[in-house]
Amino acid sequence: MYYPDNNATIKLTGSPSxxxxxxxxxKADSLCYVRLDEVYxxxxxxxxxxxxxxKSKIYQASFIDLNGKCVLAVLSNLxxxxxxxxxxxMMFYFPLNSLLGFEGEEEKFVRGITAMRxxxxxxxxxxxxLIFGCKDGGNFPLVHNLESEKAAITCLTSSSSLxxxxxxxxxxxxxxxxxxxxxxxxxxxxxxxCTTLCMRESLLLAGYASGHIRAFRTDILELAFxxxxxxxxxxxxxxxxxxxxxxxxxxxxxxxxCSADQMLHVWALPDFRTNASCRASLLYxxxxxxxxxxxxxFLSGERICVASYDEEEIxxxxxxx
Length: 321
Description:
Protein name: WD repeat-containing protein 54 beta-propeller domain-containing protein
Shape: globular
Radius of gyration: 18 Å
CATH superfamily: YVTN repeat-like/Quinoprotein amine dehydrogenase
Number of strands: 29
Pfam families: WDR54
Helix content: under 10%
Largest sheet: 5 strands, antiparallel
CATH class: Mainly Beta
Order of helices and strands: EEEEEEEEEEHEEEEEEEEEEEEEEEEEEE
CATH architecture: 7 Propeller
């Protein structure tokens, strides 16, 4: 059971934009979000700092872990920038026009990012997925340019062995994380875009513009369960990284979902290694009155933070033992 911790609400300098996945947390409990053409870093202490970036149309800002080092990635119509976790120095910049050029009338952009063991991937509006190596410190060479259907990539996620991408058609594509990055699986669309992804081991969780959450088993290539979770688009999913696989702790995990329907839900996920039920159960529902949620993230200490459009605060929910 969770409850809103009004004493821990984080005040922001500017309100988050109405984007999908517009909240990300680091291992140090720092937060980042997009406001129009700006990116802000927020701390639980209340400090809020604007990243010194060039003006662009930003689609996502996210913390990722590269070889054990937390960094901040900014994805826009200009390309991808990788900054230090504190936003005080830019480590890498890849201009999108160096690969895709300026041809065509449709705007080109990058959206969706995930880190893997020796590389990270970003999605493109053209349907391409770019893989950058990160073995050599601050040098991030482009090592793969994967092609999928000609539909904009919306989000990416990965496990230790699999990279998964989703697109505006709602389709999901999986690639083996190896030297070749060959495609190994795909799941069809369900009539609406896939808006958010997360993954743990062989369980792939996808949120859709229809408000549904679908769980796929990537080991046996089937839909495990479906939840009619929200009445509007799912704008964020976050897995609870606490207690996963620790000695003496059940391997079940918690999933938080949010939406522009003003609702925060927390779900208990099943353990597919046992013969127990393969359905998710609802642990908590919270109404964020008059707040269009744009992103959700778990923090340490079994807390959940939620960002909302046009609201200059981030709400914190704490678990009751």
